[in-house]
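Changelog note: in this version the structure field was regenerated for every chain. One regenerated record is shown below for reference.
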Amino acid sequence: MSEQFEMYDDPFKMLILLATLISEKLGTELKYEHVPSYDNAVFSMEHERFFYKKDSTEITWFEFLGRDIASSRDLSRSEYNKMFVDCMSSLYNL
């Protein structure tokens, strides 16, 4: 039995899901060309940049969310998924 938890096969789909949840929480429509800004103790997100504060992982994209995505750290899919689950939990204080 595998101990690897994967919500998605592509960890960057989690970034889009996180941006969608932020938009819903803020009561705005997600626009891929202008991601709403959000900041809490776990992560921050703004236009063209996501930053995970616990280990300083930075993910950037070019103009539109999902385009030319680059990460400052080479993480496994499992590590990316755990990071995004942590971020999603922090949105709802879970």
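Spot check on this record: Residues 11-87 form one domain. Residues 5 and 80 are 10 Å apart (CA to CA).
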